[in-house]
Amino acid sequence: MNSNRKTAIIVGVLFIIASVTSVASFFFFESIYDSDYLTVVSANENQVLIGVLLMLTATASIVGIPIAIYPILKKHNESLALGYVGARIFEGFFFAFNIITLLSILSLSHEFVNAVAPNASYFQTSGTLLLAEFEWNSILLDFPFALSALIFNYLLYKSKLIPRWLSGWGFIGGVLWLPGVLIGMFGLMDATFLAAPLGLQEMALAVWLIVKGFNSSAIAS
Prior knowledge:
By secondary structure, the protein is mostly helical. It contains nine helices and no strands.
């Protein structure tokens, strides 16, 4: 098995890990959205910590994808390949900040539960600010995610490293998701459905890379 084939498999596996862990993590820290979250989060510490570990795994995978594929992409356009690396690292930064925010909410919940006579207004205000940080970070990380999808799939389309229908699908998915992020940012409506085409394309891409790999003639050109 040559190095390019190994890279394709690694990238495909990382895409799957990043998607599965980022989605699965929500089910472990969803208690932060409970009306009595300061008490519930403290009582479900292990679940929250599992969610944090899943988010850490997702962050490592997100950052690992562009690093793994950079040597191949730079042969076709080094500037855009670097842009892809930068966008995904920026996305990973927001993921990391969300992890810190989750751990801060967990610590706050412990203080609230252990306090002899807790000042409810103080804890509620602090918790509300932390939850707002988490929500805004979750929105902002979608900007580098959408941008990275556009750069990545444009490079794949131009280089023909994978079938153009697959990279074209991803590029269109990125175009659709950008306005979805803006819609969510301004609170106009729930536009998460606009992320579906890109999410499905990433899974299809992952399977393709694991099973088929890159177009060897495109790598050689």
